[in-house]
Amino acid sequence: MPNIIxxxxxxxxxxxxxxxxxxxxxxxxxxxxxxxxxxxATDVKLVVKDAGKTLIQVIDxxxxxGVTDARLCFERHATSKIRHAEDLFDLHTxxxxxxxxxxxxxxxxxxxxxxxxxxxxxxxxxxxxxxFVSQExxxxxxxxxxxxxxxxxxxxxxxxxxxxxxxxxxxxxDEFQRVALAHPSIYFTLIHNGxxxxxxxxxxxxxxxxxxxxxKTNEKLVPVTEDTExxxxxxxxxxxxxxxxxxxxxxxxxxxxxxxxxxLHHAIMSAYEGLLKEGNQPSYFLYLQVPPNTIDINxxxxxxxxxFDDEQSLYAILRSAVKHxxxxxxxxxxLDFDRDPNLDxxxxxxxxxxxxxxxxxxxxxxxxxxxxITTVTKKSGGGSYASNLFPKKETVSWESxxxxxxxxxxxxxxxxxxxxxxxxxxxxxxxxxxxxxxxxYQFHKKYIISSIKSGMLVVDQNKAHQRVLYEQYLANxxxxxxxxxxxxxxxxxxFSFEELDFxxxxxxxxxxTGFVFDKxxxxxxxxxxxxxxxxxxxxxxxxxxxxxxxxxxxxxxxxSLNDGIAKSMAKSLAVKTxxxxxxxxxxxxxxxxxxxxxxxxxxxxxxxxxxLSVEDLDKKFTL
Length: 623
Hints:
Blueprint lengths: L9 H12 L3 H14 L4 E7 L5 E6 L6 H6 L27 H7 L2 E7 L6 E7 L2 E8 L4 E7 L6 H5 L4 H18 L4 E6 L2 E6 L4 H9 L7 E7 L4 E7 L11 E5 L2 E3 L2 H10 L12 E6 L5 E2 L10 E2 L2 H18 L43 E7 L5 E8 L14 H8 L19 H6 L1 E4 L3 E6 L2 E6 H19 L4 E11 L2 H17 L2 E5 L3 E8 L7 H12 L7 H16 L9 H12 L14 E5 H7 L3
Parallel strand pairs: 1-7, 11-13
Antiparallel strand pairs: 1-2, 2-6, 3-4, 3-6, 4-5, 7-8, 9-10, 10-13, 11-12, 14-15, 16-17, 18-19, 19-20, 20-24, 21-23, 22-23
Helix pairs in contact: 1-4, 2-6, 6-7, 8-9, 12-13, 12-15, 12-16, 14-15
């Protein structure tokens, strides 16, 4: 019987490993940037074309590699970072598995140019799909240049699963930001399709955050510092009033490595308890330094999850440090912020016994007696007496109150009382039955109730308004005739660089809804007109939620993009649960709902109303 189990060829094994290491162009960017940092580079340039699908190039001025190392670095499990198994628990570098370059070379065209400082010539290697095409000496500058072209050229199925350029570039920027934030002392540059997106000179942590996210970020930051035997914490947190709906500005770094930790995130949210609006997320950029032997970073293929030896202590320290910073910089409110200093106890009263005040009572005082209002006055001998302050005026007798009521009493006597005949109505009402039937009522500030011939109609005011606004915005975007209200003073809003770049993509569709953009620069957007259904105070919230909802799922075609914009704006601007509506507003909403093409469901496929028939109600009252 022939053997069933056999060893896979190297190129097949590399392609399988690439499935774990290289998921999208951002994965290649992460691995190459980390290799440049491990090579002790001080200047790193990232060049990307078509969001990394066509070209990814990382150029650094690190130590470079010799001829032998340049060839071996593409072999599986070839690494310069570890020698023994024990080294896995004392890691001070980014990469250590030795799979990244082999996996990248298996699914792309790769060119490596590298040279060490002491060498006269460098090495130029060309690989296509794990096959060495050429290797030759070349005159090169010090450092290393990795050029990756035509990603997934030999795995078309994987290439077809890639998202649009906007989405893939968003992931590339995410990886670039994570590495740049972890190493502010390194000069980073990002160039996409020939235009420079980021130019980050060597700086400190605060300046690096501001350079990445915009100048207005500086006023949002609150420093956090804590030094213990378990962990050393440094970095910044955002003020509660600048919290957003998304989690794009949340970064944890452990030993200069970006990680994701729901456990540590919960510690941050616990420290912000009572300071954030529901659904808002705080910003934080926290750097944790722990002994390498107390963590395990080899539990996830992307190395973004870490296992801590003492998570509970770390949780408590982090929560305490954040809470302390919020209070230290007067971010968190205190109970005595309007304290009157005159109520403070002087220091000279320290140790002095308190004295109970003496109370003198006049047992003979009668407040109803004729005379004057009296007060109790203390005598010099210790007794008390009542003294007159004001003489009491004589009041007229009570009979005088009814002197002029003679004519009134006669009229009262002539009033006819209603008969005791039982009427057919429990409640007297002059309104006609048709008018009562057409009225609407609000229940629990959430539902609109109206009677219909067959029974009762219950409308969810939030979901119904979403449907009305959704069809209105979608029609405006399609027809491109949306009215706009001009602002007396243009509104300037500040966003991060990536959010502004995304707004540029959405600008044509947003202008069809009624927005008028004067300019969009590197830090802010200037708006001079807004849709008639949007209040000026709501513009920032609407745009933030729109960016958050669409940023990671940008549709390929225009209709899907317009549909997403209409859904997001309808959700943001729809009347919320808890809002009291007038009778006219309720009637207009119900009428507008049933004038829609699809009144039965909201834009998110939730029912907008339910009907209760008379038969259903009758069943509730039968035994």
